[in-house]
Amino acid sequence: MKRYSCVMARVATLATLATMVTMATSMTACLGDGGTTSESDTPDSLADDGGDVAATDTNEGDLASVDAFEVDADKDTHDSAVEDTRVADTGPDSSVDDTVADTQLVDTAVADTTVVDTAVEDTADTVADIPVESLPKFSFFVTSYEAMIRLSGSNNGFGGDLRFGEETGLAGADKICTTIAEDEMPGAGQKIWHAYLSVKDDGTGASVNAIDRIGTGPWYDRNARLVAQDKTGLTTTRPNGDAAIKNDLPNERGESQKNQPGSNGQGTADNHDILTGSNAQGRLDSNTASNTCNNWTSTTVAGRPRLGHSWPAQSGQGWQTAHQAAGCAAVVNLIQNGPGSQGCSGVGCGGGYGAIYCFAETP
């Protein structure tokens, strides 16, 4: 807007100058034709410095000087305008050339203004928010293996450190959720997304329960299938939602987690371990910080965070709490081998890759 105002002020100033120069030229012609002006009328400063200047030229220079002086009184309006008028002192030919140049500059300024307006409109279209209410229902997902590997930049995923460039684990995990949601459905990133995680210390010294972070519901998967109507529908072994997904909570693409490809083909990936740090009521499971990998900021602490199962198994049925992870290290294990290697100490040892649940406050 500032540039627009400056351009329009310059357009107005230059248009006025063009008119004034034209008037000065006309007046000079009239005086020259009348033959009434003598060299005695020449200002001393001009007579001393340029005795060979003709009377008509001197008169025109005098008029041009008055013209420049009048414009100079308005210097605060635009300094560059004063500089444009001073070239009139060089003579009638220069005045004409200057008028043409100023006219061209006016045209250019107008054209520039049009470009500015168009650029603003184009930018507005680019950054315009897509109305959330126009989006399909989408407010829940399990972060997919592919998304976690891509965002972490590691084939082992994030492990227990979910900061993702933020100061706290919760803030980073929320950013992970928002990023994945926007990548899957443009516009969905406008919603307020939260990772379903509990912590002993959120960065201010306060503990946080996962169930308190996600709004009031309802929540739907990528294919608009109901996950749960409200919080009560989440505080059961399996979410009280659509029968097609309650025992196989889907990823951001709306795909079955259980049917993801594994080492023995489609549907053989053991990927159901999901980080929560929560009990069956969605509340902080342990007051020991290491059991949330130091509030989801560490891959080295010797903690054992609580996991839920996106699909039930012999080792646990609950979607929020099934068993503890072997540790906080970044580990991916998608092979069906029970609790995994006895020497494993990572989040994915028992069948997973450190996935999290994501909920949006808006359905």
Summary keywords:
363 residues, 8 helices, alpha+beta, Mannose-Binding Protein A, Chain A, single chain, two-stranded antiparallel ribbon, globular, disordered N terminus
Span between N and C termini? 37 Å
| Biggest sheet overview | 6 strands, mixed
Q: Specify the CATH architecture of the largest domain.
A: Roll
CATH class of the largest domain: Alpha Beta
Overall, the morphology is globular
**Alpha-carbon Rg, integer:** 37 Å
Structural class: alpha+beta
The number of distinct structural domains comes to 2
Low-confidence stretches: 1-9, 26-128
- The average pLDDT is 76
Instruction: Please work out how many helical segments DSSP would assign.
Output: 8
DSSP, total strands: 10
Determine the strand fraction and express it as a percent band.
Answer: 5-15%
Instruction: Give me the strand/helix succession.
Output: HHHHHEHHEEEEEEHEEE
Would you spell out the secondary-structure blueprint of this structure?
Elements: H1 2-34, H2 44-49, H3 55-72, H4 79-86, H5 92-127, E1 140-142, H6 145-152, H7 169-184, E2 193-195, E3 219-220, E4 226-228, E5 261-262, E6 265-266, E7 273-275, H8 293-296, E8 306-309, E9 323-324, E10 352-360
Parallel strand pairs: 7-10
Antiparallel strand pairs: 1-10, 2-10, 3-4, 5-6, 7-8, 8-9
Helix pairs in contact: 1-3, 1-5, 3-4
Description:
There is one protein chain. The chain has eight helices and ten strands. The protein has two domains: about 130 residues, no CATH class; about 230 residues, Mannose-Binding Protein A, Chain A (Roll), CATH 3.10.100.10. The radius of gyration is 37 Å and the shape is globular. With about 375 residues, it is α+β, with helices and mostly antiparallel strands. The N terminus is likely disordered.
